[in-house]
């Protein structure tokens, strides 16, 4: 048989070895050699290279405490973590990058493209800027308008000394969320539109149309009637051409499809004014003029109707370096139609909602190509555009499509989403056309920023030098002192905390003074348990360390505590003796008792060994200082342990289980046992402070008296409950109860009490010894602050009766006699005979308070229209029947399901459960459950915010009337649970009253994977069609059930674009400066 011996950790082995001598040495026999063994003074020191890490149990081990970093030659760069400030300096003949503020790479790419549009930059510099011209350079310049921000940003990009600049001023002015990536193409459109609007307000007429002159072209939609041949043209202008790339291989195919002829027939026929009717026709786009800068948007991000999200098309598209648009232009043959590629914008990544944007831009002055990747700028070799690395990023998706070979002068990309072409200009010797000078007023601001940058570089260089000088001094100090640390055999020494030595050798933390206060025992000497967390160093080294860093109290060889060692010796010897004593006590208690005995708690007797062990461990640690720690456990740790043990009902003191609350012997004789004096003597040795009760000790007289009184009170309560039950037997058993809809023939008055009172009374009747007797009816809860009744007869038969109980006059007489009644409430029936037949009129006493009733109803209706975070249910139906198969689970927190809840009571025979009937588009509203002890507002929000008002004596003004109940609720006080139970195919959504129907459809799209344009929604038979209307205005209230019927998908691209613009995963630019906010 193979025996595996468990190997103890070295630290535990050292701790056990330090106290092994206690087996043969009594506390009174302890000598100095035993104290030195306990403090491990004579353990051999470890040599360098023998320990991988420091031996914490050995106070003489000084290896692995951080000295490795200091012993030997050290590069001065290791003394600081400050980068060379010159690494932030712009290299000669390079461009300036832009900082990515989190997810603003899409902004940076367009800013670099627009900066390299020399004409746009030149015109922006000409914009009037009185704020910059009058700025005092002693303060920071803060642009206000978009033009001012762009001016300053372009000037910095042109002449800054920095390697990259921070565009946060412009981003903040636009109100963009720096942590959310947005649609880059939409940003381009909106920003140019905003810039066009801003420039149009300039006084200089040459600046008002800069955007149009640079980016705007013209085309027209031409429709030709097939019947009469009449042609009609609708002129329009464009700032970019949006080209579909799906199914195409090159740019020419994309442009051709954009301009191709479209047939208008069937339902899509054209109304011809000449024919005065709808006719088949053809429609196409005619290009009339092109701008100097031609922006071509490749539509890579399209809406996927199956998932309800945008997706990226990774289609390879080839495009030329030189593009001839002449074949596509109609008329105006004098225009130069040859364009040169000037920028390619790339999206790296496979998802439409993530990835990274970069730009490849051609320098108009030199013809060199540069890759702009936020802060990093790379110049392409040989003045050629290189897209290879960017195309490799998308290879994470195993695509079957290989990159096609490109002809000379062409490039191929499946990540390019925008191409920028500039019209080819005739070669000229005038080099000034490609030179744009920064105006003096802007250059002054750039010089101010450059001056700040140079000051920062100088400051960083000084800090680097200071850190190096400090590090070199520390290096010399450590090399000197570390050699002096080991204590010589027989020489003087002191104890220093290990953690302090580690921090002294850690250059990243400031060295504080030496603190030994946590290592002291209650005798102000070194605690034996703390020797493992300290190191024994030579007196010479200690003198130098205390001289340089201060601290204390100092612990030398006289600081080893003889008292603590003696106490520990006694405890360890008792712990070794405990097992033998346990066996002996177990045998002794089995013998027949003879002579005087002592009472011991049975629970104490069962667990006395564990209690003794805990007591010995406490004695073992009781010498620790009040603000110190033992074995690494602080006072908070010990307190938490005690609390956990108390919470687990564990015994803390021996024999406390037979001590009553008065400190006397408990009256529970079954919980204690008589033991012999011999047993008690052994137990007493371990528990000297335990309570002692001899065999003749009497039980606590106070407890005996209280026990008798409790029995008497229980008997009285049982008699009272039986008497009340016999007098109100029908009320208790819910038999022969009056019902308002069928007014009893033998009485014209019924009495009303709160149902809460009846429920509490029934609890007392069922368990009179466990529940308190009811003394007060509390009818004031059903009255308004003016003393008027809050219910009408009609409201009671329509649902309010679920919170009250109806009583017969005879029952009211009994209740008036048995309980305190603050205010009688009754309902009277006056029957009359009229020519049209018998009629009945109902009144209440006290009378109804119309003012409070109308105020409550108004508040109730307003609450139903102004809710937030409320639950509604969406049921998907197929052919007016419930769809019973499971549907896709929710995809986000906004459409999380409410938890399933159980019914309070089973349904009565013959009752129909509306939750399980087949539901058509006109589903009814289902109400929440009302607990027996609560009156609840008819305003059910999500579980986190449901407004519930519990009844109490002070809640008169808080009375709330419940909503109309379903047919399953019986009048007269018997309530039925109407808690909503979801069916398969149903989802619970969290909505607010001010949310639009369109936003709800987006939530439904994520819950059911049904596109908004395929959703037909209805509530109570009414179709919901106005997407811009709020749910509150459409009558959608909390707990409503909305029926969803899904159409078969149709190719409605206009609707797809509409949903695409909503972009649930992206909030878009709603609320930003790009939309005028």
From TrEMBL:
One of the protein's GO biological processes: proteolysis
GO cellular component: cytosol; nucleus
Enzyme Commission identifier(s): 3.4.19.12
Domain USP, chain residue ranges per copy: 96-424
Reaction(s) catalysed by this chain's protein: Thiol-dependent hydrolysis of ester, thioester, amide, peptide and isopeptide bonds formed by the C-terminal Gly of ubiquitin (a 76-residue protein attached to proteins as an intracellular targeting signal)
Record-stated family: Belongs to the peptidase C19 family.
Protein name: Ubiquitin carboxyl-terminal hydrolase 48
Organism annotation: Betta splendens (Siamese fighting fish)
Name of the gene encoding the protein in the UniProt record: usp48
């Amino acid at each position: 048989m193979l025996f595996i011996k468990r190997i103890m950790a070295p630290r535990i082995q050292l701790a056990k070895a330090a106290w092994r001598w206690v087996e043969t040495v009594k506390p009174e026999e302890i000598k100095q050699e035993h104290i030195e063994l306990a403090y491990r003074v004579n353990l051999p020191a470890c040599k360098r290279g023998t320990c991988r890490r420091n031996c914490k149990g050995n106070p003489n081990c000084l290896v692995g405490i951080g000295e490795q970093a200091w012993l030997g030659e050290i590069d001065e760069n290791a003394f600081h973590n400050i980068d060379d400030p010159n690494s932030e300096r712009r290299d000669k003949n390079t461009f300036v990058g832009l900082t990515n503020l989190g997810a603003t790479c899409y902004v940076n790419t367009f800013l670099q493209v627009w900066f390299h549009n020399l004409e746009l930059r030149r015109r922006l510099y000409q914009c009037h800027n009185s704020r910059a011209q009058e700025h005092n350079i002693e303060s920071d310049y803060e642009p206000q308008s978009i033009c001012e921000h762009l001016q300053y940003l372009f000037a910095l990009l042109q002449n800054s000394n920095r390697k990259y600049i921070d565009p946060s001023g412009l981003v903040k002015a636009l109100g963009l969320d720096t942590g959310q990536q947005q649609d880059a193409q939409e940003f381009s459109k909106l920003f140019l539109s905003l810039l066009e609007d801003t420039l149009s307000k300039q006084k200089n007429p040459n600046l008002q149309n800069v955007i149009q002159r640079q980016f705007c072209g013209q085309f027209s939609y031409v429709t030709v009637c097939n019947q009469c041949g009449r042609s009609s043209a609708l002129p329009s202008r464009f700032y970019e051409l949006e080209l579909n790339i799906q199914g195409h291989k090159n740019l020419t195919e994309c442009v051709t499809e954009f301009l191709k002829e479209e047939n208008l027939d069937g339902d899509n026929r054209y109304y011809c004014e000449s024919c005065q009717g709808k006719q088949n026709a053809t429609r196409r786009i005619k290009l009339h003029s092109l701008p100097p800068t031609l922006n071509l948007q490749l539509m890579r991000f399209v809406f996927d109707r199956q998932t309800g999200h945008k997706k990226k098309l990774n289609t390879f598209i080839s495009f030329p370096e030189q593009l001839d648009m002449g074949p596509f232009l109609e008329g105006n043959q004098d225009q130069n139609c040859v364009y040169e590629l000037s920028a390619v914008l790339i999206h790296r990544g496979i998802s439409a909602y993530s990835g990274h944007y970069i730009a490849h831009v051609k320098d108009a002055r030199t013809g060199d190509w540069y890759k702009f990747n936020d802060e990093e700028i790379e110049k392409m070799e040989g003045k050629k555009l290189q897209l290879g690395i960017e195309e490799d990023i998308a290879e994470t998706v195993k695509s079957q499509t290989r990159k096609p070979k490109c002809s000379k002068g062409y490039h191929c990309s499946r990540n390019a989403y925008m191409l920028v072409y500039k019209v080819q200009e005739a070669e000229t010797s005038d080099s000034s056309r490609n030179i744009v000078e920064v105006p003096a007023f802007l250059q002054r601001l750039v010089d101010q920023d450059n001056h700040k940058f140079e000051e920062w570089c100088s400051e960083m260089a000084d800090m680097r030098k200071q850190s190096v000088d400090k590090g070199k001094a520390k290096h010399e100090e450590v090399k000197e002192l570390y050699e002096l640390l080991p204590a010589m055999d027989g020489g003087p020494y002191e104890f220093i905390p290990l953690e302090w030595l580690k921090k002294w050798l850690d250059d990243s933390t400031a060295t504080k003074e030496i603190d030994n206060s946590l290592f002291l025992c209650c005798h102000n000497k070194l605690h034996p348990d703390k020797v493992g967390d300290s190191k024994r160093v030579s007196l010479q080294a200690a003198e130098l360390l205390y001289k340089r860093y201060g601290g204390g109290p100092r612990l030398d060889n006289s600081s080893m505590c003889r008292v603590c060692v003696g106490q520990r010796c006694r405890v360890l010897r008792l712990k070794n003796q405990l097992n033998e004593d346990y066996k002996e006590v177990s045998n002794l208690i089995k013998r027949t008792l003879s002579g005087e005995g002592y009472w011991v708690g049975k629970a104490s007797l069962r667990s006395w060994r564990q209690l003794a062990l805990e007591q010995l461990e406490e004695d073992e640690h009781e010498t620790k200082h009040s603000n110190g720690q033992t074995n690494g456990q602080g006072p908070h740790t010990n307190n938490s342990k005690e609390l956990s043990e108390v919470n687990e009902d564990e015994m803390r003191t021996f024999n406390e289980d037979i001590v009553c609350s008065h400190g006397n012997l408990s009256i529970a004789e079954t919980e204690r046992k008589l033991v012999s004096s011999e047993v008690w003597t052994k137990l007493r040795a371990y528990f000297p402070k335990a309570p002692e009760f001899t065999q003749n000790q009497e039980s606590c007289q106070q407890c005996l008296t209280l026990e008798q009184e409790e029995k008497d009170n229980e008997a009285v309560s049982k008699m009272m409950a039986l008497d009340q039950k016999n007098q109100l037997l029908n009320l208790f058993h819910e038999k022969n109860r009056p019902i308002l809809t069928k007014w009893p023939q033998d009485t014209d008055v019924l009495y009303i009490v709160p149902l809460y009172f009846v429920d509490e009374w029934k609890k007392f009747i069922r368990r009179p010894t466990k529940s308190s007797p009811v003394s007060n009816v509390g009818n004031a809860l059903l009255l308004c602050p003016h003393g008027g009744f809050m219910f009408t007869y009609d409201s009671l038969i329509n649902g309010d009766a679920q919170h009250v109980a109806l009583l017969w006059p005879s029952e009211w007489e009994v209740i008036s006699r048995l309980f305190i009644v603050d205010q009688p409430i009754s309902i009277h029936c006056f029957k009359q005979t009229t020519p049209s037949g018998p009629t009945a009129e109902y009144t209440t006493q006290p009378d109804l308070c119309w003012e409070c009733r109308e105020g409550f109803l108004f508040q109730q209706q307003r609450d139903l229209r102004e809710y937030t975070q409320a639950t509604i249910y969406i049921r998907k139906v197929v052919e007016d029947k419930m769809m019973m198969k499971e549907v896709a689970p929710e995809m986000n927190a906004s459409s999380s399901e409410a938890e399933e809840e159980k019914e309070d009571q089973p349904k009565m025979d013959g009752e129909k459960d509306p939750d399980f009937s087949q539901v058509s588009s006109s589903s009814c509203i289902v109400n929440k459950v009302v607990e027996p002890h609560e009156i609840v507002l008819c305003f059910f929000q999500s579980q986190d915010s449901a407004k519930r008002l519990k009844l109490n004596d002070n809640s008169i003004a808080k009375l709330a009337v419940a909503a109309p109940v379903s047919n399953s609720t019986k009048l007269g006080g018997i309530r039925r649970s109407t808690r909503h139970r979801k069916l398969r195919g149903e989802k619970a959504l969290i909505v607010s009253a001010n949310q639009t129907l369109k936003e709800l459809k987006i939530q439904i799209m994520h819950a059911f994977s049904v596109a908004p344009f395929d959703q037909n929604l209805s509530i109570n038979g009414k179709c919901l069609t106005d997407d811009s209307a709020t749910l509150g205005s459409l009558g959608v209230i909390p707990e409503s059930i909305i029926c969803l019927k899904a159409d078969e998908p149709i190719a409605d691209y206009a609707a797809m674009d509409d949903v695409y613009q909503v972009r649930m995963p992206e909030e878009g630019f709603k609320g930003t400066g790009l939309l005028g906010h």
